[in-house]
Design goal:
heterodimer; A: 508 residues; mainly alpha; three-stranded mixed sheet; 22 helices; globular; B: two-stranded antiparallel ribbon; 2 strands
Chain lengths: 508, 463
């Protein structure tokens, strides 16, 4: 396996952990915010460094140089590959910007220490390919929001129940997969357990209520950071996609599609802004899952592009909403608020990020949405139409929310509501990424296509090893692809597909 | 300097001028440093003049060199060679696009000059011109598009700017609600367009119009699709065109769109935007030749819209709505012409009608003033003779027709009763079911947001 030039991954994970320890001594919330920005910034710089460094290596996967794990226990816990390379800086950026855009009115309520801890866990999750490692980190990731709910004396039962079931199923399912004899297909129950676990973590209907509940009771920032990186989708790619038979993927795709349409419809009738955001996000994250489970090169590429665009756009959208909430309190969408005159910049960002999320031309979401629909139409024509329907409903929901929040009446505040410099910087950064990625989409697309190729190869290899001949027929939709080891378009030498190696319990 | 270079240079300026305008106005607003009124006006005029002159040069070159089709390829915007998938940014200058681009620049220039005075010291002056720049860019990109995805990009820009300009006076709730309605109709129509785009990619592995309507210069292309394929894609595009041009049954948004400032009403709903649907049909007109059924559908839709527009226009009580329905009548007739294969006549009709309607709409506010002065001078209402219809149609039928026209064909009512309300009820029921479920799981009231109280007026649709 190739080596990065520096231990970027480990530093990006350790920096927030040091930050957590550092913040234990800090009592002043505003000082804690400034310090958390520093540690989060270091993590972001390292994640970007890892991404750029990985880009220069022209390889499928790489690990840290001078890795602590390798020197101490001869295990390589953190690896960067085609899939995770852009996800790491994206995740670090979301945390950094959330820290930057937190207003003074929120700093006492929002725990920066827990935020840094969850950042470290998330970066570790995205850098980890070992199945048990992923499952453990997913479990750890639940702790910060759970703790916050507990400390704020909010109801935890709905969230805790869903997460417990999800993690239990994940562990049990993978335990059964790992016990499967080499050459045998994993038992159907193991696949089913993994499927349900992934669906719960991704908030797929009817197992989505933990997500709305989290947005109701947790701070907006915590809820936002827990859902927008789409760790459930990551678990689906790492754990399920390489071994799941065709029927399982098809089922997930159809359920996710129903969720996308349902959530889009629900977002139109919500009377409160956080719930509206939650359903809007749910609709989009389900679309990502639809693309992944279609498992064709174009559909997968679209889904991976959409993953990035939805992560950036809806985090920006959520941060804007959070900034408005910091000024006005929880927002009811059943009335007009007329905030445009006082916060024109936030209004513009709200619109840009919202439009980007629905795949408006010229924004980063357009290419992903087009490819996803194209991929869906290729496999199931009617599914493609449903994706378009979900997109149309989401578009209406975004403009409806914009109009309710920013227009409709004259509002006379007693204090200035102008956006602050750091807030503007945060949303402007996202806006630039969203528009820049929309105008120059090819680099991102190429990278996502390579990642999609890798996932398909891993799936092919995983199924080839584990599945009987009958299952091989189910893979016939990949037959038009060039063989993985002789592909003329491959940009790197032939290699054992890393994902398959990582997920196969029989591999050394 | 050879001719090809001149074509490329001028063609690029035609597209770059409105793009640069949007970049300047939008970028400055985004970073919180908007231009002064005078600068905004001058920048807009400069962009329009540069674009217009370049378009005229392109036309002159085409006439002098006897070239009927000039293609400006910006290269593949995205490409996945392994999947034979690509999006190309390509602009074409032909007998359809060049007149439409010149028309767009002329009318946008006129309207922007009018708006710089009309909206002087208005709070939303800068916002109007940013949206105006979005619209101008959308119109130019749509007109010149050589691929269906380029056309879709421009189409969406026009739709967004239209919806936001309808809600321009956003301190009142009525314009905002009307803007949202326009957007809703556009989204539905755009969904049809998107499906058509994807299907075309699916069938031809690319969105190039050459594959859809043949390689000959407009209007002589021959579509390469089969009759059934042409019918299916054509019907989807017809829905998209109907939404954008407010053809029946999407006509309900047209009078509502008049809530916007007069300049935007003039440019969008009287002149350019309302003709975009017809433009789309003209662009894909070789498809119509592949399917008689498609032609029949186009003619039927056009006729229905024209008759409806003519009837509804007669009972409107405000001048902008009356003009809006009059526009619809003409657009309906244009669509009929397209369905009958009269493409040049349709193009000439579009140009003439757009110019006339812009003039009428810009003149409308002062015309009312003139009427009032006249009526004050003669001490009563202006005399009017009974029309032919009043003399021939029985009273009972006239009353029914009047009600039909007054209710705007009941389109809005039908839409609200049979689509919006059931949709809302279903999802509100789901929301209530979710509340019961989370209350059960939590063992207590699970929604904090239920305790939030309204501070002002409730949005009408959520009562």
């Amino acid at each position: 396996m190739s080596e990065l030039h520096l231990p970027w991954l480990e530093i990006s994970i350790i920096a927030p952990i040091i930050g957590v320890l550092w913040l234990i001594r800090v009592r002043d919330p505003e000082l804690a915010q400034r310090h958390s920005m520093f540690f989060s910034g270091v993590a972001l710089a390292c994640a970007v460094g890892a991404w750029l460094d990985f880009g220069t290596l022209h390889t499928f996967e790489a690990h840290d140089r001078w890795s602590f794990g390798w020197h101490t226990a001869h295990v390589e816990p953190f690896v960067i590959d085609e899939l995770s390379a852009p996800l790491l800086p994206m995740a670090a950026l979301l945390y950094f910007l959330t820290s930057v855009a937190t207003l003074r009115t929120k700093v006492r309520r929002f725990s920066f220490g827990w935020m840094l801890l969850s950042e470290a866990i998330l970066l570790a999750t995205l850098s980890c390919r070992n199945p048990w490692g992923i499952i453990t980190l997913l479990a750890l990731g639940v702790v910060p929001p759970l703790w916050e709910l507990h400390v704020r004396r909010r109801p935890v039962r709905v969230f805790a129940l869903h997460m417990a079931v999800c993690l239990g199923m994940l562990a049990l399912g993978w335990f059964m997969v790992a016990r499967t004899a080499p050459g045998a297909h994993p038992p159907i129950w193991a696949i089913a357990l993994l499927m349900v676990a992934v669906l719960i973590r991704s908030g797929i209907v009817p197992m989505h209520c933990w997500m709305t509940d989290l947005f109701e009771h947790a701070t907006f920032g915590t809820a936002l950071l827990f859902v927008t990186p789409m760790v459930g989708v990551y678990a689906a790619v790492r754990l399920l996609l390489p071994i799941a038979p065709d029927w399982a993927l098809r089922s997930i795709a159809l359920i996710s599609l129903a969720t996308a349409v349902y959530a889009a419809g629900m977002s139109l009738v919500q009377r409160e802004a956080r719930r509206f955001f939650c359903y809007l996000f749910l609709s989009h994250s389900s679309l990502v899952l639809v693309g992944l489970e279609i498992a064709t090169p174009i559909g997968l590429t679209g889904a991976l592009c959409l993953w990035i665009s939805v992560g950036l756009a809806l985090t920006g959208f959520g941060l804007t909403l959070r900034s408005i909430e910091a000024r006005k309190g929880r927002l009811l969408l059943s009335e007009f608020h007329g905030l445009y005159e006082h916060t024109p910049a936030l209004a513009a960002f709200f619109l840009i990020t919202g439009l980007a999320s629905i795949g408006f031309p010229g924004t980063i979401g357009f290419v992903g949405a087009e490819l996803l629909i194209e991929g869906a139409v290729d496999v199931y024509p009617l599914v493609g139409l449903a994706v378009v329907l979900a997109g149309a409903l989401n578009g209406i929901a975004v403009l409806q929310a914009y109009m309710r929040v920013f227009t409709g009446k004259r509002y006379f505040p007693s204090i200035s509501l102008q956006s602050r410099g750091p807030e503007r910087m945060a949303v402007l950064t996202l806006a630039l990424l969203i528009l820049g990625g929309g105008i120059f989409p090819q680099p991102g697309l190429t990278s996502r296509h390579h990642a999609a190729d890798e996932i398909i190869k891993a799936r092919r290899r995983g199924m080839g090893v584990a599945a009987p001949v009958a299952e091989q027929h189910a893979m016939r939709r990949f037959d038009h692809l060039p063989p993985s080891d002789t592909s003329a378009d491959d940009h790197t030498p032939p290699l054992v597909p890393p994902l398959a190696t990582a997920i196969d319990p029989r591999s050394p | 300097m050879n001719v090809d270079f001149l074509f490329s240079l001028c063609g690029a300026i035609v597209v770059a001028a409105p793009a640069a305008l949007l970049l300047l106005l939008g970028g400055s607003a985004l970073v919180g440093k908007p231009f002064l009124e005078k600068s905004v006006s001058r920048l807009t005029q400069a962009a329009v003049v540069f674009g217009l002159l370049s378009a005229i040069v392109v036309l002159a070159l085409m006439l002098s060199t006897d070239r009927r089709l000039v293609t400006l390829t910006m290269g593949d915007w995205i490409v996945l060679p392994q999947q034979h998938f690509h999006f190309t940014f390509k602009f074409i200058f032909d007998r359809l696009s060049v007149p439409f681009v010149i028309l767009s620049f002329v009318l946008c220039g006129t309207t922007s000059a009018f708006a710089s005075k009309y909206l002087h010291r208005e709070a939303g002056y800068g916002r109007f011109f940013v949206l105006f720049a979005v619209f101008l860019l959308g119109m130019i990109v749509t007109s010149l598009a050589g691929t269906i995805e380029t056309l879709f990009a421009g189409w969406e820009l026009v739709g967004l700017s239209s919806a936001l300009l309808v809600g321009f006076f956003h301190e009142r709730s009525a314009p905002v609600k009307n803007g949202l309605r326009v957007w809703t109709v556009y989204r539905v129509a755009d969904a049809a367009f998107l499906v058509a785009t994807v299907l075309m990619h699916h069938l031809t592995s690319g969105g190039d119009f050459v594959r859809l309507v043949g390689s000959g210069p407009w209007p002589e292309g021959v579509a390469l699709l089969t009759s059934n394929q042409a019918l299916f894609i054509g019907l989807l595009l017809l829905v998209a065109a109907a939404g954008k041009s407010a053809l029946a049954p999407f006509s309900g948004w047209l009078p509502r769109a008049m809530e916007g400032p007069t300049p935007s009403s003039a440019i969008f709903y009287g002149a350019l935007s309302v003709h975009l649907g017809a433009f789309l049909l003209l662009r894909v007109s070789p498809l119509l030749e592949r399917s008689v059924l498609l032609c029949v559908a186009v003619v039927a839709l056009g006729l229905t819209s024209a008759v409806f527009g003519a009837v509804a226009a007669r009972v409107q009580s405000d001048v902008k709505s009356a003009l809006a329905f009059a526009s619809l009548t003409q657009v309906g007739i244009i669509v009929v012409e397209i369905g009958c294969g009269l493409r040049y006549i349709a193009l000439i009709h579009i140009i003439g009608h757009a110019c006339l309607r812009t003039l009428q709409l810009l003149r409308a506010p002062t015309l009312l003033l003139d009427y009032r002065t006249l009526e004050n001078a003669i001490g009563g209402r202006l005399p009017g003779a009974p029309t032919v219809w009043e003399q021939t149609i029985p009273e009972r039928w006239r009353r029914r027709l009047y009600r039909f026209a007054l209710e705007r064909g009941f389109f809005d009512v039908l839409l609200a009763d049979y689509i919006v309300r059931p949709f809302t009820r279903v999802f509100q029921w789901c929301d209530a079911a979710e509340r019961r479920w989370t209350d059960f799981l939590a063992g207590e009231q699970s929604r904090e947001s239920d305790a939030l109280e309204l501070s002002g007026r409730v949005a009408e649709e959520l009562r």
